[in-house]
Amino acid sequence: MRTGNEPSTARSPLRMRLWLSLWGMIWAALGLAAFVATGRVGWATACGVLLVVTVTDLCFVVRHLRQGPRYQPGRDVPPYEPDRGGRTRYRR
Prior knowledge:
Blueprint: H1 6-9, H2 14-38, H3 41-67
Helix pairs in contact: 2-3
Keywords: Membrane, Transmembrane, Transmembrane helix
InterPro entries: DUF6343
Region (Disordered): 69-92
């Protein structure tokens, strides 16, 4: 639904970020284990850093999901406009 005020009410697709973070966390952990087992320190470090980034993102996503869709961060941020029935098509 486009209302024309998207920059002020833009929201991230949190469920997609949740699954992408989980997917990245699994691959980074597997890569870390594989590179540690083979003795590749540089690649193991890179996978470890990537693992930390994905776990941090996962924590932020879970935090935002628990806050709910109507959470407002402060007085200077206006409330979200309610969804009036799904997708609308604009005719030109």
